[in-house]
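Appendix B. Chain record.
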Amino acid sequence: MRSMASATYPSRTRRWGHHLNFRDPDGIALEFDAPTDLAMKAQRVLASGQMTLEEIAAFVAERFGPEYVSGSDGSSQVI
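Structure tokens predicted for this chain:
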């Protein structure tokens, strides 16, 4: 891929997946994402539509980290 792309950037691995940014020979920005099993589970749980916002915030805080949940008014919001 490096021989075909005009610019590549280091891949990043996070708890929710792997991410790679690059530019094609025409300079168009492209990216690949590969979710982890945890991210796929989160997607299925959220897609079920049977969780409250508080339950979603607790799920995110527990599995991804509290830094992804905020609430200036005392409520839990996923950011």
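Further analysis of this model is presented in Appendix C.
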